[in-house]
Every structure is written in structure tokens, then in C-alpha cells.
């Protein structure tokens, strides 16, 4: 998922580590190349700039040019800063807060982002990995096909889906889902809200009404990772209007440049909790900043 960035950086660092001694000018030149590589990966300019500034300050503070292995030390600093950029202040990101059953989880996002697929993938994961009893409900009253899609996926993965009752509003469906979850002894219920092609007030008002009704433990925003900085803007917007607790980046199996993953935390302050790595139901991975930084730096 970060192939081209990873390649670019390994080129820069190979050169750096092969040189025995380094001058400050060598380090600066290398960091300029890192900055270009980040921008090419569609990391936003302020985030890339900040990143380089931090690395530069640490490199100066640790007097890397005077160390025995200056190249490796710069790589180590870049690695640590990458982790910090991906993880924010909390370090490794924990799992979902789905204690006190039945825990409502609100799935939000634009149409076509992979929201329904991700809802089902997450349900499957909670069932198989965490042994949770999971209920799913589609709140997309305007698109019967989306409701059907969730029902089909539910049958495929063996997760219960709230039966469709024509004519209900999203809030009414959410209420029925809560009741069903309580009566049926479910641990979690996932609410797949309606998406739109773009952010509009009507969509936001509808999602906000559902949020106020169920008071979700988690509100997960699903965004298309291929859209780079647009994904980050979408996240800012949803967070401002709805309040988001975490982000799921989909299509990270594609040839996206990775910028969304890299700037999401720094720009929005929200953790990426999962990444989607394909269309199949098992193609959902927890997001680990350490692992991702390791993957980027090879
Ligand atoms: P929604 O409109 O947001 O609910 O989007 P869907 O869940 O219907 O997904 C739209 C399309 O994206 C479907 O064809 C999915 O199979 C596909 N999709 C979803 N997540 C991923 C992913 O992580 N990787 C890939 N390659 N395709 C995905």
C-alpha cells in the first residue's frame, strides 16, 4: 500500500547510510528528498513540513553528524516520527470501545466509500475474532438496494441483520435495532447509515438524529483511501458535524499513494482504526502505526 513511497525513501536512505560521515548539508539534502517523497504520496503540505521540521530538530539535538552511524540514526529518527505522525499522542491504537452491551456502533461515510462492505467485514471480525454476538441494521431508507446488500452480506458471513420494514425513518430503524439488540442479548449492533455522493446538510442532519437517538460508543467514518487529501477533508467535515471516534480507510489494496493514511491523524486528530484491503469479507486489518512505519521504511 505504500510501495512507491517506500521505494523513494529507501533510495534516499541507502545513499545516506552508505556514506560513512555526514555533514549537516547531507542530512538537509536527504530530508528535502523525504519531503518531496511525502508530497508525492499526497501527504498535505503542512503535515510534510512539520514532519521534516521535527526530524531536523531531533537530528540536530542528537548531533547525528558526530555519531558513529549517522545514516542509521537519521533513519531511526524518521521511523519514530512516522509512528508519532500515524499514532498521535496515544501510541498504539487500541481496539473498539464496545463494552457495556449492547454497544451501538455508527458507520458513517459517503456513498461508494465502502461503508456497507466495511460494516459487514467489521461484523464478521467481531464475531470470529472477538466472539461477539453482532447485529447489523441498514438505515439507508432511500436506497433499498443498499439494505438488500447488507442482508445478503449478513447471510454470507452468518451475522444477523435487522429485518427491513418499509416506511420507517432511520431513527425508527435505529430504535428497533437497539430493542432487538437488547432483547436478543447482542454484544454490539452496527448501524450502516445512508451515504450520499457528497456531504450535504440533509445527510448530516439525518446521521446526527440517529447519533442523538442511540448515543454510539464508536462512530466510525469509512473513507476511500485512494482519494488522498480528499479523504482527510471528508473526515474533518464529518468530525465537525457528527463527531467521529475513528476512521476506516478502504481500498488500501489499490495503488493509492498512502497520503490519506499518513496525514489523517495529524490533520484530524482521529485515529485510523482499520484499513480495508480488498472486496472479500476477510480483507480488513487493524491499523498499527508501528507496523505501517516499518512497512514504509522497509
Ligand atoms: P458504500 O456505498 O459506501 O456502502 O460502498 P460499498 O460497501 O457498496 O462498496 C463499494 C464498492 O467498493 C464495492 O464494490 C466493494 O466491494 C468495494 N470495496 C469496499 N471496500 C474495499 C476495499 O477495501 N478494497 C477494494 N478493492 N474494494 C473495496
TrEMBL record:
<dbReference type="GO" id="GO:0006614">
    <property type="term" value="P:SRP-dependent cotranslational protein targeting to membrane"/>
</dbReference>
<dbReference type="GO" id="GO:0003924">
    <property type="term" value="F:GTPase activity"/>
</dbReference>
<keyword id="KW-0342">GTP-binding</keyword>
<dbReference type="GO" id="GO:0008312">
    <property type="term" value="F:7S RNA binding"/>
</dbReference>
<keyword id="KW-0733">Signal recognition particle</keyword>
<protein>
    <recommendedName>
        <fullName>Signal recognition particle protein</fullName>
        <ecNumber>3.6.5.4</ecNumber>
    </recommendedName>
</protein>
<feature type="binding site">
    <location>
        <begin position="109"/>
        <end position="116"/>
    </location>
    <ligand>
        <name>GTP</name>
    </ligand>
</feature>
<comment type="subunit">
    <text>Part of the signal recognition particle protein translocation system, which is composed of SRP and FtsY. SRP is a ribonucleoprotein composed of Ffh and a 4.5S RNA molecule.</text>
</comment>
<keyword id="KW-0378">Hydrolase</keyword>
<dbReference type="GO" id="GO:0005525">
    <property type="term" value="F:GTP binding"/>
</dbReference>
<comment type="similarity">
    <text>Belongs to the GTP-binding SRP family. SRP54 subfamily.</text>
</comment>
<dbReference type="GO" id="GO:0005886">
    <property type="term" value="C:plasma membrane"/>
</dbReference>
<keyword id="KW-0963">Cytoplasm</keyword>
<feature type="binding site">
    <location>
        <begin position="250"/>
        <end position="253"/>
    </location>
    <ligand>
        <name>GTP</name>
    </ligand>
</feature>
<keyword id="KW-0687">Ribonucleoprotein</keyword>
<feature type="binding site">
    <location>
        <begin position="192"/>
        <end position="196"/>
    </location>
    <ligand>
        <name>GTP</name>
    </ligand>
</feature>
<keyword id="KW-0547">Nucleotide-binding</keyword>
<dbReference type="GO" id="GO:0048500">
    <property type="term" value="C:signal recognition particle"/>
</dbReference>
<keyword id="KW-0694">RNA-binding</keyword>
<comment type="function">
    <text>Involved in targeting and insertion of nascent membrane proteins into the cytoplasmic membrane. Binds to the hydrophobic signal sequence of the ribosome-nascent chain (RNC) as it emerges from the ribosomes. The SRP-RNC complex is then targeted to the cytoplasmic membrane where it interacts with the SRP receptor FtsY. Interaction with FtsY leads to the transfer of the RNC complex to the Sec translocase for insertion into the membrane, the hydrolysis of GTP by both Ffh and FtsY, and the dissociation of the SRP-FtsY complex into the individual components.</text>
</comment>
<feature type="domain" description="SRP54-type proteins GTP-binding">
    <location>
        <begin position="271"/>
        <end position="284"/>
    </location>
</feature>
Amino acid at each position: 500500500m505504500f510501495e512507491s513511497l517506500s521505494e523513494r525513501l529507501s533510495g534516499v536512505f541507502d545513499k545516506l547510510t552508505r556514506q560513512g560521515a555526514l555533514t549537516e548539508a547531507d542530512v538537509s539534502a536527504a530530508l528535502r528528498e523525504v519531503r518531496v517523497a511525502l508530497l508525492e504520496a499526497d501527504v498535505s503540505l503542512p503535515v510534510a513540513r512539520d514532519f521534516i521540521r521535527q526530524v531536523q530538530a531531533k537530528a540536530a539535538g542528537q548531533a547525528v553528524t558526530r555519531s558513529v552511524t549517522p545514516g542509521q540514526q537519521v533513519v531511526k529518527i524518521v521511523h519514530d516520527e512516522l509512528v508519532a505522525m500515524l499514532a498521535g499522542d496515544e501510541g498504539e491504537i487500541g481496539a473498539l470501545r464496545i463494552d457495556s452491551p449492547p454497544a451501538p456502533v455508527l458507520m458513517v461515510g459517503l456513498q461508494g466509500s465502502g461503508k456497507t462492505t466495511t460494516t459487514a467485514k467489521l461484523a464478521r471480525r467481531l464475531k470470529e475474532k472477538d466472539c461477539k454476538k453482532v447485529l447489523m441494521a441498514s438505515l439507508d431508507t432511500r436506497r433499498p438496494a443498499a439494505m438488500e446488500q447488507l442482508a445478503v452480506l449478513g447471510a454470507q458471513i452468518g451475522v444477523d441483520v435487522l429485518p427491513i420494514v418499509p416506511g420507517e425513518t432511520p431513527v425508527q430503524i435505529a430504535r428497533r435495532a437497539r430493542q432487538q439488540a437488547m432483547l436478543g442479548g447482542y454484544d454490539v449492533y452496527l448501524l450502516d447509515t445512508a451515504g450520499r455522493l457528497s456531504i450535504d446538510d440533509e445527510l448530516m442532519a439525518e446521521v446526527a438524529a440517529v447519533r442523538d437517538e442511540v448515543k454510539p460508543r464508536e462512530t466510525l467514518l469509512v473513507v476511500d483511501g485512494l482519494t488522498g487529501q480528499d479523504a482527510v477533508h471528508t473526515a474533518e467535515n464529518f468530525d465537525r458535524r457528527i463527531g467521529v471516534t475513528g476512521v476506516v480507510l478502504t481500498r488500501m489494496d489499490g495503488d493509492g499513494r498512502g497520503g490519506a493514511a499518513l496525514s489523517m491523524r495529524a490533520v484530524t486528530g482521529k485515529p485510523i482504526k482499520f484499513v480495508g484491503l480488498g472486496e472479500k469479507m476477510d480483507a480488513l486489518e487493524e491499523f498499527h502505526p508501528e507496523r505501517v512505519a516499518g512497512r514504509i521504511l522497509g
